[in-house]
Amino acid sequence: ELNANDVPTACTTICAPIVQLTNTCDVDPGARENDDEKNGEDNGAEPDEAVESQCVCSNKSFDVASIAALCASCIQQNGKGRTDDEGMTELMGCVDMDNIMSACKFSSMSYAPSATALVAQVTVSATKPAFTAATATTTTG
């Protein structure tokens, strides 16, 4: 999930559709990150990540592959660093976009400010997946 507050100001326009799409596709907002932080661990892929990736990667309401690639490139060019718990500096939004690009197998592109014209007519249309963390760990019957 790409959060708006992780997107550099210069990338707000080009990344807006990806922020909107990933937030719509996020089936358990904040809970996974909070659980990992609380436990002091990150166990890698969670069951909901596959559902979220499918929602993002298969979306046809706009050219997700191109806009995601341009957003990732813009963040790399304009990103602001933050220091994580281990003292490592990362570009805010870069990890999220790298995960999206990798999960969807999107090809990279080079961002130029003129590319923002590509999102002028974009309307993001997506339905939040019907998945909850509870359905991954419990069954009813």
TrEMBL record:
<protein>
    <submittedName>
        <fullName>Uncharacterized protein</fullName>
    </submittedName>
</protein>
<feature type="region of interest" description="Disordered">
    <location>
        <begin position="26"/>
        <end position="50"/>
    </location>
</feature>
<feature type="compositionally biased region" description="Basic and acidic residues">
    <location>
        <begin position="29"/>
        <end position="41"/>
    </location>
</feature>
